[in-house]
Amino acid sequence: MKTAAICLSLVGAAAAFAPAPTQRVGSALALGLDDIGGSSLPLPNFDPLGLATWGSDETLLWFRAAELKHGRVAMVATTGYLFNAAGYHFPGMLSSDVSFESLSTMSPPDAWAAVPTAGKAQILATIFVAELVTEGYQGTHYMKGGDLPTMVFPKIDFSGVSEATLSRKRTSELNNGRLAQIAILSFISAHYIPGSVPALAGNPAF
Fold it and tell me: Contact at 8 Å (CB) between 72 and 45?
C-alpha cells in the first residue's frame, strides 16, 4: 500500500492540471492550461516541467485525470494514516487472528504489513475494479472528450449543481489532493527516513 501511495502521489504531483469538462480533443496540440481550468493562486498554471506541451490533447487529458485520481487516493491515504496514528480503530476482528485493536497500536506502515495476504488481495482487487470502471465503463472515455473519472463508491449526483459551483469545487478538490499528496509522502518519508521531515521528528506516530 505504501509503495502504491508513493508511486501514485509522485505521478499525480508532477502534473498540476485541474478537472474540468472539455469538448475539443485531437492529435494536434489544441488544449492548454488556460483551456482546462483549475488554475489557482498562489501559483496559477503551475507547470515547471512543461508537461502541458507533451504529446497531444489526449496526453494532456490523461495527465489531468491522473492528477485527479492520485489526489483522491492521497486524500484517503492521509485520512487513513492520521486515523490509525491517532489510535482509532474499528471494533472486532480483521481476521481470525488479527484484531483491529492490535493494528491501532502499530504505526500505519507496520499495521499494513500485519494485514493478512488475503486482506491485502481484497483491497487491491477493489481498487482494480474501481480503476476499470473509471477507465471506460462509464461511457465515452475522458481522453476522447468524455467526462473525467467520477467517484465510484458511492456514486454522487451533481446534476442539480450549477457550473460555477462545480468549477469552484473541482478546483478545491484538486488543491486538497495536491496538499494530500505532499502530506502522505511526508508521513512515509518521516517513518522510513528519520529526521527527513523536521516537523514530524520525534513523533511516535511517524
Answer: no
Which ranges of 15-107 does DSSP label H, i.e. alpha helix?
A: 33-36, 57-85, 100-104
| Alpha-carbon span 118 to 78, nearest angstrom | 23
Rounded (to 5) percent helix, strand, coil in the chain: 55, 0, 45
Q: Tell me which DSSP letter residue 203 carries.
A: -
Give me the helices (H) in 38-162, please. 57-85, 100-104, 108-114, 117-134
Counted residue by residue, the chain has a size of 206
Helix (H, G, I), strand (E, B) or coil at 81: helix
Residue pair 15/180 in contact (Cβ under 8 Å)? The answer is: no
pTM: 0.75
Question: Which residues contact residue 151 at a Cβ distance below 8 angstroms, ignoring those fewer than 6 apart?
Answer: 72
Task: State pLDDT tens for residues 95-115.
Answer: 888 999 998 888 888 888 999
Helix (H, G, I), strand (E, B) or coil at 93: strand
Is pLDDT at 66 greater than 80 in this prediction? yes
Judge whether 16 and 178 are in contact, CB under 8 Å: yes
What is the tens place of the pLDDT at every residue in 148-175? 777 666 677 778 888 888 888 888 888 8
